[in-house]
Design brief:
Helix content: 40-55%
Order of helices and strands: EHEHEEHHHHH
Protein name: Glutathione S-transferase family protein
Number of helices: 7
Strand content: 5-15%
Radius of gyration: 17 Å
Pfam family, one: GST_N_2
Structural class: alpha+beta
Domain GST C-terminal: 87-207
Shape: globular
Domain GST N-terminal: 1-82
Oligomer: single chain
Largest sheet: 4 strands, mixed
Organism: Janthinobacterium kumbetense
Distance between the termini: 18 Å
Number of strands: 4
């Protein structure tokens, strides 16, 4: 299998972190330079007409796109350690937690960066600075809620590490790296402690 990624981008990082947590080996990584427009190359567009990463190319030539779909496939390929839930009940609650952080933290972080950082104008043109400011506010609202959640439990979905934590961590790191966002600097000590704890996991080094 081949995994098409781009360094320092959050969705591919979610997949590489998921792979690292699972201990899956043998997947070849193919890095694309988005700033150079390699995601618009006809050969890559033949794999994903939307021109987005990550893309997982299976051994039989079929292609999977979309982060969650790729992770679902990998979870089925190697069920343990389990990251998406054992049984329908746990799967539902983990999916709820993952979707919440994806829609309200991860998306806000991505939009804040894409529309607020001048280096990304090549990828997001036109940029809308007012939208970036609004998205920064949305991220902070969600971060305040997560801080309260993490005051009561160690992980986003409850008592154990799951895919929801990968999504949350990658969102926080994307905002941290390019927008210098630090939850602790805004009084969110539980969220900051959580981020720092997840950063110590070996999978967090998979970028």
């Amino acid at each position: 299998m081949k995994l098409y990624i781009s360094p320092r981008t959050p969705n591919p990082r979610r997949v590489t972190m998921f792979i690292a947590e699972k201990g899956i080996t043998g997947i070849e990584e193919v890095a694309l330079d988005l700033m150079a427009g390699q995601h618009r190359d006809p050969a890559f567009l033949a794999k994903n007409p939307l021109g987005r990463v990550p893309v997982l190319e299976l051994a039989d030539g079929r292609v999977l796109t979309e982060t969650r779909a790729i992770c679902t496939y990998l979870e089925g390929l190697q069920p343990q350690p389990n990251l998406m839930g054992e049984g329908f009940e746990e799967r539902a609650f983990i999916e709820m937690a993952d979707r919440r952080v994806e829609l309200h933290l991860f998306s806000a972080a991505a939009n804040w960066v894409r529309h607020g950082h001048p280096a990304l104008v090549a990828l997001e043109n036109p940029q809308f600075p007012d939208f970036a400011t609004a998205q920064a506010g949305k991220l902070r609202e969600t971060a305040q809620w997560l801080d309260q959640v993490l005051a009561q439990q160690p992980y986003i979905a409850g008592e154990r590490f799951t895919i929801a934590d990968i999504t949350a961590f990658c969102a926080l790191e994307f905002a941290r790296g390019l927008m210098k966002y630090r939850p602790g600097a805004e009084g969110l000590q539980h969220l900051q402690a959580y981020r720092d704890r997840i950063a110590e996991r070996p999978s967090a080094q998979a970028k």
